[in-house]
Amino acid sequence: MALDGLWIVQFTGKEILGSGVAVFSNGKVFGGETGFYYIGSYEAEGKVVKARVMIRNFDPAIPSGFGIPGDYEMDVSAVLQDDKMTGTAMIANQPQHSLGIRLIKKANL
Predict the structure, then answer these.
(1) 46 φψ region: left (φ > 0), alpha (ψ -120 to 50), beta (else)
(2) Once rounded to an integer, what is the mean pLDDT over residues 56-76?
(3) pTM (2 decimals)?
(4) How far apart (Å, rounded) are the C-alpha atoms in residues 75 and 92?
(5) 64-73: b or e for each residue (b if 16 or more CB lie within 10 Å)?
(6) Whole-Å CA distances, 99 to 27, 46, 107
(7) CB 51, CB 42: distance < 8 Å
(8) Residue 44: C-alpha distances to residues 37, 71, 74, 78 (Å)
(9) What dihedral do alpha carbons 71, 74, 97, 69 form, nearest 10°?
(10) 3-class SS at 64?
């Protein structure tokens, strides 16, 4: 199945539980959740998808689940199976700040 489309994003960590949406299109990823939006790029090799995503906090009243103020980058690695992806996301160069992710495709582009 092609990656390009609208995906629901669910994430869980030690003290984090949340969800958002992401659009994958031609090597780019765009998305968001309450208080944050995402912009980044992705590559797929076989069923492995890797992305680097900038997380921007547009509403300072909504804190990051990591307790990190402001913006940060995340490295994402997931395995694609049919219309689902599962994997991990980690704040760039900070493995202590990681979480599990699950994406479910809802529409093709």
Answers:
(1) left
(2) 89
(3) 0.90
(4) 6
(5) bbbeeeeebe
(6) 23, 23, 25
(7) yes
(8) 22, 25, 17, 10
(9) 0
(10) coil
